[in-house]
TrEMBL record, chain A:
MF-aspect GO terms: transmembrane transporter activity
Protein name: L-arabinose transporter permease protein
Bilayer topology annotation: Multi-pass membrane protein
Protein's organism: Pseudoruegeria aquimaris
Transmembrane annotation, as ranges: 12-29, 49-79, 91-113, 158-175, 207-231, 251-269, 290-308
Cellular compartments per GO CC: plasma membrane
UniProt subcellular location: Cell membrane
Domain of life of the organism encoding this protein: Bacteria
InterPro entries: ABC_transp_permease (IPR001851)
Pfam families: BPD_transp_2 (PF02653)
Keyword match Coiled coil: no
TrEMBL record, chain B:
UniProt key word Protein biosynthesis: no
Keyword Signal (UniProt): no
Record's protein name: Branched-chain amino acid transport system / permease component
Localization of this protein: Cell membrane
Biological source species: Pseudoruegeria aquimaris
Length: 321, 364
């Protein structure tokens, strides 16, 4: 394996980690506020569809992104309505949202485009182009550092850089702002937050909407950045891998970046090599596909460092009278 | 009167929830430019109109009874088993191994063995999440989701690399021996002079499913174990105080749940395909969630909800065929049913409760 191959694998790692990272940070906001969200998958799927549909019709990827965020936030509000306002089961609501998205995207897609649930292939301005950073071409000949810069760091769609920037931003919001303090508190002890005169309902809705926006960007990236158009079920379990990454990262932003890059690397290796020989044993491609899920099962019960979710997660808050 | 009458809780609220789900589905059909009335006629005609349609409807119903009961058992212990899909997948592996291992002389021998194989494999797939929940406190929902994906990858690997016939392009096992063939409704009803459609996949597994419904009722409401499961589900601390071990009940409830989901394989793998193929569960594990929610975790309710979804599945196939409305419409309806009966239950319940309470005051 030469240096360029490694760079190429890492390059596709970054691309594949981006939707995971955005969805993972989305889940982080929601779950830190005490609203469990297993509907990340559905929100991404809805966003992927609507953004590709709007981008295909208007030829503008930015309008597509807005539409994708709109679709995802709509789903997020439905989740909020069920789990915050009506105090329903958050897990069941998430399951329902996944099904609604899986069904509606195909039914509506078939009705609009009659392509069996696909959207037309995106060309030109309908996709987010790859951005070439300054001096990338000039530095491409410089060994190692130049190659890393021009191949790995430069040449991604704008949404990849948005996702990377979202990590320090999330950290800052969570640990350095008043909103972040309250958000973390409401996920651990909503009663205390309420006693301090802060609305639990409003805080949680805010978190759920932020979750919707981030999932919207993640879904739009899938259909208008990574691929060129929407196909049925194109999220393919990424929402659940993001959930796994969130647990892996123990609900912390920088660790989320690490977990998503790891899972992205696994996918990149799995895409490039069908079977891998390590120390005489052959790892089948299915093993690589299942590895993120297996790692989560191992990490969750604390065999390798215990993952403890926010204490008030999954419970609707009932104000005392 | 302090609370709603029972009939309102058991009948009225599900009826309202279901009507809302169908109303919204009708709007979706109307919005994509089709006639909802024609759609519902096509669905009823296609699923109950003749014995072929009925045979398919009851075939799907059988699947959903098994997966619905699986979710319901766990629910009584307040465990949300979202892993029916994976457990049914692995149950299919168990049934296939049993059917392929022995040149069965007759189905009466093959069926009990396959039931054992499917249930054991399904239960084994539920055992690890159950253990992790009971002993280490890792959330059963997350682990069972992960196990669904692991099951899919495992089956993919086994079918492609181990179980596939050499020379066969498709990732599937060889066909089961003729002795493992389960009687279909056509064969079962012919001696009585009833001519049931020959190609419909409904088979004797339907009767096994009905037996499971009765067994479920007896287990949950008439046995000591069922009492312990319900007590644990109502209040863990009270159950502990009564000497019920949370670890034991969690694991036993999940083993029964996984076993029931694995049992589904006698219908779809042994009864219909007669070989193991990729993705033979086709989402039935997830439909079990909707079925259990709608059926209020009661066998009568589970049966009616399974029949409803059997109708929706078969009717949905007919819709795709005749009206060119994608089959995914059923997924939308499924999502709406789960949302309205599960997550948005309070939306209907709270105002209704208020209404009944105000009536109660008027009488008093």
């Amino acid at each position: 394996m030469d240096f360029l191959t490694i760079i190429q694998i890492l390059d596709s790692t970054v691309r594949l980690a981006t939707p995971l990272l955005l969805a993972c940070l989305a889940g982080l906001f929601s779950e830190r506020s005490g609203v469990f969200d297993i509907g990340l998958e559905g929100k991404m799927l809805a966003a992927a569809f609507l953004s590709a549909a709007v981008a295909a019709v208007t030829g503008n990827a930015w309008l597509g992104l807005c539409a994708g965020i709109f679709a995802s936030v709509l789903m997020a509000l439905l989740h909020g309505l069920a789990s915050i306002t009506f105090r329903g089961d958050q897990l069941i609501s998430g399951v329902a949202i996944n099904f609604l998205a899986a069904g509606l995207t195909v039914v509506i897609g078939q009705s609009w485009f009659a392509l069996g649930g696909r959207t037309p292939s995106l060309i030109g301005g309908g996709r987010f182009p790859d951005i070439t950073l300054p001096f990338a071409d000039a530095l491409a000949e410089v060994p190692v550092i130049g190659q890393i810069y021009s191949e790995l760091i430069s040449g991604h769609s704008i949404l990849v850089y948005v996702a990377m920037a979202a990590v320090p931003l999330t950290w800052w919001v969570l640990y350095r702002t008043r909103f972040g303090l309250r958000l973390r508190a409401v996920g651990e002890n909503p009663g205390a937050v309420d006693t301090a005169g802060i609305s639990v309902v409003r805080l949680r809705y805010t978190a759920v909407i932020i979750c919707g926006v981030l999932c919207g960007i993640a879904g739009s990236y899938l259909s208008t950045g990574l691929a060129a158009g929407f196909v049925k079920d194109m999220t393919a379990g990424r929402g659940f891998i993001a959930l796994a990454a969130l647990i892996f990262a123990k609900w912390r932003p920088w660790q989320a970046l690490g977990a998503c890059l790891l899972f992205g690397l696994l996918e990149a290796i799995g895409n490039r090599y069908q079977n891998i020989d390590i120390l005489g044993a052959t790892l089948p491609v299915q093993f690589m596909q299942a590895l993120p899920y297996m790692l989560t099962v191992v990490i969750l019960p604390g065999f390798v460092g215990k993952a403890i979710p926010p204490r008030a997660g999954g419970e609707a808050y009932v104000k005392e009278r | 009167m302090k609370k709603m009458p029972k009939w309102a809780d058991v009948l009225l609220i599900p009826a309202i929830n279901l009507s809302l789900a169908f109303l919204i589905s009708g709007l979706v059909i109307w919005a994509i430019g089709k006639d909802p009335w024609v759609a519902i006629k096509t669905m009823v005609q296609g699923s109950f109109g003749d014995s072929r349609g009925l045979g398919y409807t009851l075939y799907y119903t059988t699947n959903f009874i098994f997966t619905g009961l699986a979710v319901a058992v766990a629910s009584h212990a307040r465990l949300f088993n979202i892993g029916g899909e994976g457990q049914a997948t692995v149950g299919g592996l168990g049934v296939a191994l049993v059917c392929l291992a022995v040149p069965w002389p007759h189905w009466t021998l093959a069926l009990p063995a396959a039931i054992l194989g499917g249930a054991l494999f399904g239960a084994a797939w539920a055992a690890i999440p159950a253990y992790l929940q009971a002993k280490r406190g890792s959330h059963i929902v997350i682990t069972t989701i992960m196990f669904n994906f692991i099951a899919a990858a495992l089956l993919g690997y086994l079918l492609v690399n181990v179980l596939k016939e050499p020379g066969n392009m498709a990732a599937e096992t060889r066909s089961f021996p003729p002795g493992a063939h389960l009687p279909t409704f056509h064969e079962m009803l012919a001696p009585f002079g009833i001519d049931f459609n020959k190609n419909a996949p409904a088979n004797i597994s339907f009767l096994v499913a009905l037996l499971c419904l009765i067994g479920f009722y007896v287990l949950i409401w008439k046995t000591r174990l069922g009492y312990a499961i319900r007590a644990f589900g109502q209040s863990e601390s009270a159950a502990v105080y009564a000497g019920i071990s949370p670890v034991k009940i969690t694991i036993i409830a999940m083993l029964i749940s996984g076993g029931l989901a694995g049992l589904m394989a006698i219908n779809n793998v042994m009864g219909e395909a007669e070989r193991l193929i990729l993705n033979s569960v086709e989402g039935a594990g997830f439909i079990g969630i909707a079925v259990a929610l709608m059926g209020r975790n009661h066998p009568v309710g589970v049966f009616l909800a399974a029949l409803l979804f059997g109708f929706l599945y078969q009717g949905g196939a007919e819709l795709a065929l005749w009206e060119s409305i994608p089959r995914e419409l059923i997924v939308v309806i499924q999502g709406l049913v789960i949302l309205l009966t599960g997550a948005l239950d309070n939306m209907v319940r709270a105002p209704l409760e208020k209404l009944f309470l105000s009536f109660g005051k008027g009488e008093a």
